[in-house]
Amino acid sequence: IDESGDLEESRDFDAETQKALEEIDGCQNEIDALNEKASEEILKVEQKYNKLRKPFFEKRNEIIKKIPNFWVTAFANHPQVSALLDEEEEECLHYMTQLEVEEFEDIKSGYRIKFHFSKNPYFSNDVLTKEFHLGTSDPKSESTKISWSADMNLVKSARSRQEKMKQGRKRGLDVKSFFLWFEDHEDPSQDDIAEVIKDDMWPNPLQYFLVPDIEVENGVEEEEE
Amino acid sequence: IDESGDLEESRDFDAETQKALEEIDGCQNEIDALNEKASEEILKVEQKYNKLRKPFFEKRNEIIKKIPNFWVTAFANHPQVSALLDEEEEECLHYMTQLEVEEFEDIKSGYRIKFHFSKNPYFSNDVLTKEFHLGTSDPKSESTKISWSADMNLVKSARSRQEKMKQGRKRGLDVKSFFLWFEDHEDPSQDDIAEVIKDDMWPNPLQYFLVPDIEVENGVEEEEE
Ligand SMILES: [Ca+2]
Ligand SMILES: [Ca+2]
Ligand SMILES: [Mg+2]
Ligand SMILES: [Mg+2]
Asked: What is the C-alpha separation between B181 and A185, in angstroms, rounded?
């Protein structure tokens, strides 16, 4: 009777009950339509505020460029992100000048994270982007192909650390690697690190830059958990 | 410097960096203010649609009253709710005529679930209400004191089933009981059954009433998981 077909199965009801069920189904259709309209309005509010917030994020990014090692410090102080940073990778992230997180216009369908770098000995790319397409039943992520300089390939280093760990039978222990994460596309709808960068780091990085009692510059670190 | 006090800790920065940090903090304050305004607007949209949906829920409740055993059938067909129903309790729920779920006006602070009953041999209450106050750091729930008829107290029955289970060392197995759930206030912010009733049963009970291939009336049940 309705498009969902549910009521067509109910052949055993008496006429009065059948009529009542159809009326309930009619109510459900009205409620569903209102739910749909509510979602659309909420999306519009979110889009409006994304636009209003954007100039402040841009201004913030310009100011952050003036502070040496802002992002590597914030990353190294962040409980989840720091757990990903191998020592050499942390060196490499000293060349990171800017982070950008952009939600796609319709928000639900995905987002991208852009890591901007100054000229550095590791790779020739100016921007490394990891992008998430989540709008379909088959979520996908993709990331910039990194043009590593000779003998500076940190993905290769991470893979050989991984191999050594397997041989040492330290299974269960994952290798720390920012760049393995960057190139990992196994479960794009559950990329915890990407979500932490989008929902925790990007909204307020200052709190991680400023974490007291953690010294990044001289390599002495006191983790507070 | 700002109310959060974060920047007061940063005494070691040079003047230029300190100035940049204060500017970043200024941007954060603007972003925070916009986040707050966004939340308020979204709340208003949700409140508006709660009001618009309300007459359809009320109309639906009136129609449902015409269908004998609508709610007990929907409950008994629902995967999580049915797991709670002891046989005698299911008998009792045949007297349930109406379900109501009301979110508090500001939505985030809580909700109540009202179970309406016709005259029945179990208790004298017309309505049993379980109510959740979640707006504070100390969430609480409360429920109607049930006036059980002599020898019909289903909470007592459930407690004695519980005792027997403990003696039989079947620990880990929880006793099935709708009424123990109704009177349970241990973790109001994580009441899975209440949430399933609010977010799954209430939005569309017809789908559970109509689940095919499950016979409730004659006691033969084929569960489909
Ligand atoms: Ca650290
Ligand atoms: Ca059943
Ligand atoms: Mg440094
Ligand atoms: Mg019945």
From this structure: 43
Domain coordinates in residue numbering, chain B? 13-64, 68-209
ipTM (interface predicted TM): 0.81
- Inter-chain touch B17–A60, beta carbons under 8 Å: no
Strand partners, B56: none
Residue A138 sits at the chain B interface (C-beta within 8 Å): no
DSSP string, B59-109: HHHHHHTTSTTHHHHHHHHSHHHHTT--HHHHHHHTTEEEEEEEE-TTSTT
Of A70, A69, A57, residue with least CA distance to A206 = A70
Judge whether A98 and A61 are in contact, CB under 8 Å.
yes
Confidence at residue B107, expressed as pLDDT on a 0 to 100 scale = 78
Q: Tens of pLDDT along B97-139? A: 999 999 998 878 999 999 999 999 999 999 999 999 998 999 9
Decide which of 3.30.1120.90, 3.40.50.10860, 3.20.20.70, 1.10.490.110 is the CATH code for B68-209.
3.30.1120.90
Q: Which residue is associated with the tokens 């006429």? A: A15
Buried b vs exposed e over B117-126: b needs ≥16 C-beta within 10 Å?
A: beebebbebe
Segment A51-54 long-range contacts (CB within 8 Å, at least 24 positions apart): A52/B34, A53/B31, A53/B34, A53/B35
Contact A6/B210, CB-based, under 8 Å? yes
Distance CA B39, CA A166 (A): 48
Residues of chain A in contact with residue B31, where contact means CB-CB under 8 angstroms, are 53, 56-57, 60, 203-204
Q: How confident is the model at residue A225 (pLDDT cuts 50, 70, 90)?
A: very low
By CB atoms closer than 10 A (0-12, 13-18, 19+), residue A133 is middle
